[in-house]
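Schema walk-through. Below, the input block comes first and the output block second. Nothing else is stored per chain. Lengths vary across the set, and this one has 337 residues.
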Amino acid sequence: MLYSLARAALFKLDPEVAHDLTLKSLSKLGSGAAILGAGADRGESRRVMGIDFPNPVGLAAGLDKNGEYIDALAALGFGSIEIGTVTPRPQPGNPKPRMFRLVEHEALINRLGFNNDGVEKLLANVERSSFRGVLGINIGKNFDTPMEKAADDYLACLDAVYARASYVTVNISSPNTKNLRDLQSEEKLDELLAALVSRRKSLARKHGAMKPIAVKVAPDLDDAQIDAIASLTMKHGIDALIATNTTISREGVEGDPRSAEAGGLSGRPLMAKSTAVLAKLSRALGGAVPLIGVGGITTGADAHAKAAAGASLVQIYTGFIYRGPQLIADARRALRT
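--- output ---
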C-alpha cells in the first residue's frame, strides 16, 4: 500500500527524475529501508558459481549504475546486488529524454547508453558501502572505444573491479551502445572470452581468488546464435549466463504511443521472449553452466517460470519499479516452493 501511494506520485515525474529521487530517498532511510523490504532470509540459500547466495532473488544491473545505493537496496531483501554497467571512463550516455514508461504494459523503454561516472568512482562508492553480501559488478565498453579495441575496455574494468566483486558480469547485449551486440557473434565472442579468461588467471594469482565471470546476453538471438554462445561458454569456462537484457522488439506493445521510441524494451512484455531464450540456453548447456533469469518478472509466478525454464537465480529491475519491494517477497516465496 505504501509503495502504491509513492508510485502514484513518482509516476507523475519524468522516469529518470523519479528514479534518482527514489534512490536518494532510500539512501536517507539507510538500514531503515528494511521496513519496506522482504524480511530475513529463511532457508533460501543457493550455491551458484561457487558463491553462497542468501536467497535467489537479485537486483539486476542498471538500477544502481555507480554503486551509490548498495546498502539501502540490500536492506530491501535482495539476495544479491548487481551494480553497473560501468565503463573505464565516465560518460554521460545518450541525450535526454531517454527513458519512457509504458504504464499499461508495465514496461519501460530506455536508451540510456551506459551513463555512469566511470570505474574509479564506482569503486570509491563500493569502498564506502558497508555491504558484505554478494556483489556483482557489470562491465562494458565506452561508447567511443572502437569495436576492434572493445576487449581493452572490458579488460581494464575487469582489472579494476576484480578485488571487490563477488562476480563480474560482461555486458555485451545492451542495444544502446552502437554495435555492442556484434560482440555476441561467434568470432568476436570467442576472442573476447579468451582474453577475459586469460586475464582472470593472472588476476587470480595476484589476488589469491578465482572470481566468477558471467555473460549477459540479448533476447533477440536466433537458435544458431544461442547454440554458439552456449558452446563458447563451455569452451572458455564461463561461470554463468544471464538471460536476458532488454529487447529491440516491440511485440506486445504495438499501438502504445511510446512504442516508437528507440531503445531497449523491458518489463512484462519481455517475459515470454526472454524466458524462451533462457529455456533454449538451458537445453543447449545441459546443466553444464548455471543460468540467471532476468527479463519481465512482475510476479512471483514469473520468477517460478524462470526457474522452471532452467534458471538457478533470478534478477529483477523493471518489475521492481512497478511493484516495489513486495515483488522481492513474492519472488522469494515463489522460489521456496
